[in-house]
Amino acid sequence: MASAAAVDTMPDALRQSRYHMKRCFTRFTEKGRRLMKLQHLQEEIEQTIEDKAERSKVMEGTLGDILNSTQEAAVVPPYVAFAVRHNPGIWDYVKVEADSLSVEIITSTDYLKFKEMIYDENWANDENSLEIDFGVFDIGTPKLTLSSSIGNGLGYVSKFMTSVLGGKPESAKPLVDYLLTLERNGEKLMINETIDTVMKLQEALVIAEVFVSAMPKDTPYQNFEQKLKEWGFEKGWGDNAERTRQTMRILSEIMQAPDPANMEAFFSRLPVIYNVVVFSVHGYFGQADVLGLPDTGGQVVYILDQVRAMEEEMLLRIKQQGLNVKPQILVVTRLIPDAKGNKCNQEMELIEGTTHSHILRVPFITEKGVLGPWDASEKIVELMEGKPDLIIGNYTDGNLVASLVASKLGVTQGTIAHALEKTKYEDSDVNWRDLDSKYHFSCQFTADLIAMNAADFIITSTYQEIAGSKKRAGQYESHVSFTMPGLYRAVSGIDVFDPKFNIASPGADQSVYFPSSEKQKRFTKFQSAIEELVYSKVENDEHIGYLADRKKPIIFSMARLDIVKNIAGLTEWYGKNKRLRNLVNLVIVGGFFDPSKSKDREEMAEIKKMHALIQKYQLKGQLRWIVAQTDRYRNGELYRCIADTKGAFVQPALYEAFGLTVIEAMNSGLPTFATNQGGPAEIIVDGVSGFHIDPNNGDESSNKIADFFEKCKADSRYWNKMSHGGLRRINECYTWKIYTNKVLNMGSAYGFWKQLIKDQKQAKQRYIDIFYNLQFRKLAKNLSISEETKPATSSKT
Ligand code: UDP
Ligand code: LCN
């Protein structure tokens, strides 16, 4: 969305400090074509206007405001074009001529073309360069307008449905038609053809409600089923008289005058989702011994927990609907013949803690050749004895497959990204050519665009995943308008104001991660192993370093040894900070000790760095480094044992999309310090439910941790206060129960919403088909996969 208003004042602002501005712009342009980030601009302004007072004067007011909101500037002398981000999702683009300081407001497309001049001038000027514009299909579909509403899609879709179905009585006809389509195994649900108009439904509801109200509340549905059938009602309203009456009343109120709250409530009660397919294609998907293997991390934990919680919630809903249906969830992944000792070579596996949920592994290649998504969809339909009701994709690969299969089968589709790759590497779009042989971004970003546009709804873990923060653009927001010079220009990749975006944050399994104070539940059988793991003086394949003073509290961190996780950073902060070293010990879980054992470039580098830091800061005696751990029950107890020392958890990542370890630690009652870059900044309220730390400012962060432990020494109640603060936050916002409720409600409501915007959806789908066939398939075919390169469109987590 571009609004020119805020930059209208730029010419005046430049005029006010013309002398200095001319010098600054001369400096910006004298180095020739380049892309500058805010920090570069600020540095060059500082060097140009050396006098501090003078500089502050220039930067005060409008110009300062504009520059502070600038994300980047493209320099193509004599012009400098600024991409200005006023608020999450709200951008303006302006072009300034360096000599005259004349200002022109330009469109986002012109900005992209201008930026391309830096990388590929011929392509930028070629009027036949490929432009991708998904936005054209959204004309006529309602959108949000406020940054603050982003991520609350379901709430707004309920409002939009309200206005579509309200007004004249016949406006509600699409809802009646939709109810008439509901059935399970050939058996009609909710209503039958006797009630096929709004008027008939309204009348029948009045009669039926009077009838069921007269019965004792707990009268089972079967006792009055026959009577309701005579009036045109089928099963699905409730399991007893009271629940049936409530559902009928909600619908009656909607028919009389729709309102969003009733709309949402009604869709949450509708019997529509029983068979769910979750695609998670990359990495190793298994229930044991997979974490830490290439491309395998928190996402697996997320999906397994999600499935367990979803099955439980579906069973509850089915009971409340008065139905006798078995839910089924299939997590579809790839079968890996050489499974390194885990079960990734097994076709089917029951998911632990469930009765009706399985992992289905489909081989990518058989003697018949490479299998396509269709082979998976045939298997799914065979196992489910029909089409699924909802398909959920995960990550680039899973989301792409989910989009293809959902479109083929005509099923409602949700996508989950956890972390989109585009924002992980600065300017990965304009530099795609240089990075493609290593990361295949051309393929990956194309797949991401296809999936996010095809999806009926998108589940994110935090607001920042969609639209970032005041200072930083969101992951989806970075797909709004971008260019890969030489490949295509996405003038409208996605719209973060689309009501398909929803925040549903995950939780942690509370039977595994619970507070250390819940003594009777503790997994005592692991305690001697944990004692050995943390405190023995021995160094072996599992642990190195030791803790000389075991009376000190422990600061603990656990992560894959990726550069972005910044575990080496934390080790260095600790090494440097004497005060912190005097107060606490450091325990790290992650990676291996022998870099040659790792298959991952980044991990190898981190391992070497860890060894170097242990040497440099003489950390033995104060640091224990334990290799990656795979037993979540033992890990749960480990967090609690750290809490027993009145320690803390530290998550120092340079950027973290969500951060499951943060909520595992908080569930265990550990005061938690987590990065202010990404999801954890939203999970934790600084100083109330934990603390934010700045991964780019190690001294400040390590001092903040040291201050906490000093305060705890002075007042032991402070540790308990923070521990409780964290637990309160978790129970209010981050549980799987809250998550599954939201996701199942989305599946139901968006299933109807997509019928209401059918025409736009169909047009967009045809465009997606073309993009997939002409662009994606070509890119995928050209991939050369070597040992050194990562799998096609994969990501790590
Ligand atoms: N984990 C683990 N062993 C390790 C490191 C991590 O079991 O050695 C688990 C951790 O408990 C969490 C998940 O892996 O459940 C990591 O998820 P997170 O969201 O923190 O990061 P990701 O790896 O997905 O980037
Ligand atoms: C991927 C990530 O990068 C983490 O931040 C998340 O916590 C994890 O997936 C689960 O959503």
In short:
It is built from 30 helices and 27 strands. It has 797 residues and is α/β, with parallel strands linked by helices. The structure holds uridine-5'-diphosphate and 1,5-anhydro-D-arabino-hex-1-enitol (LCN).
List descriptors:
15% strand, alpha/beta, binds uridine-5'-diphosphate, 45% helix, globular, eight-stranded mixed β-sheet, 797 residues, disordered C terminus, binds 1,5-anhydro-D-arabino-hex-1-enitol, seven-stranded mixed β-sheet
Question: Uncertain runs with pLDDT below 50, 5 residues or more?
Answer: 786-795
Report the C-alpha radius of gyration, rounded.
28 Å
Number of contiguous helices: 30
What helical percentage do the residues reach?
A: 40-55%
Quaternary structure classification: single chain
* Mean pLDDT reading: 94
Strand arrangement, largest sheet?
11-12-10-9-15-16-17-20
Envelope shape: globular
By DSSP, the count of extended strands is 27
State the end-to-end CA separation.
32 Å
Largest sheet: 8 strands, mixed
Strand content: 15-25%
Ligands bound here?
uridine-5'-diphosphate, 1,5-anhydro-D-arabino-hex-1-enitol
Organism: Salvia splendens (Scarlet sage)
Enzyme class: transferase
Family: Belongs to the glycosyltransferase 1 family. Plant sucrose synthase subfamily.
Protein name: Sucrose synthase
Task: Provide the fold topology.
Blueprint: H1 10-16, H2 18-30, E1 34-37, H3 38-48, H4 52-59, H5 62-69, E2 70-76, E3 79-87, E4 90-97, E5 103-106, H6 108-119, H7 121-125, E6 131-133, H8 153-165, H9 173-181, E7 183-184, E8 187-188, H10 198-213, H11 222-231, H12 241-256, H13 260-269, E9 275-279, H14 298-321, E10 328-335, E11 348-350, E12 357-363, E13 365-366, E14 369-370, H15 373-384, E15 390-394, H16 395-409, E16 412-416, H17 432-439, H18 441-454, E17 457-460, H19 463-467, E18 482-484, E19 488-492, E20 501-503, H20 527-535, E21 543-547, E22 554-558, H21 567-576, H22 578-583, E23 585-589, H23 601-616, E24 622-626, H24 632-644, E25 648-651, H25 660-667, E26 672-675, H26 680-683, E27 691-693, H27 698-714, H28 717-733, H29 736-756, H30 758-781
Parallel strand pairs: 6-19, 9-10, 9-15, 10-12, 15-16, 16-17, 17-20, 22-23, 22-25, 23-24, 25-26, 26-27
Antiparallel strand pairs: 1-2, 2-3, 3-4, 4-5, 7-8, 11-12, 13-14, 18-19, 21-24
1,5-anhydro-D-arabino-hex-1-enitol (LCN) is lined by residues 298-299, 302, 418-419, 461, 506, 656-660, 679, 797.
